[in-house]
Amino acid sequence: MPFIDSKVSVKVTKEQEKELKTRLGQAISIIPGKSESWLMVGIEDEYSLYFRGDDSEPMAFVEVRIFGGPNRDAFEKMTAELTKIYGEVLGIAPDHMYIKYSATTDWGWNGSNF
To answer: Which fold has domain 3-109?
Structure first.
């Protein structure tokens, strides 16, 4: 039950959106027990972001939410992969990205909770 939500300051084409979706679907398996078959992805482009008081560089805020407990080692590997993906697809430098991880045991789907 992972969800990757992206707010990016750049315009995202349909082709880039599809590439992000595909690559995020592959990357989610870095976290044990997670797979693309349960992954939901949100992409909000042309989002107003300021970093250090400046908005002149491409930037992103990415949230990775998962059902279950945190896994620091997997999150570390996931950060490396996410910065690579957003850099290659959207030209966002790793030092202009924040990535937030949230793990919870409270997750609803299909009219009930897990």
So the answer is: Macrophage Migration Inhibitory Factor (3.30.429)
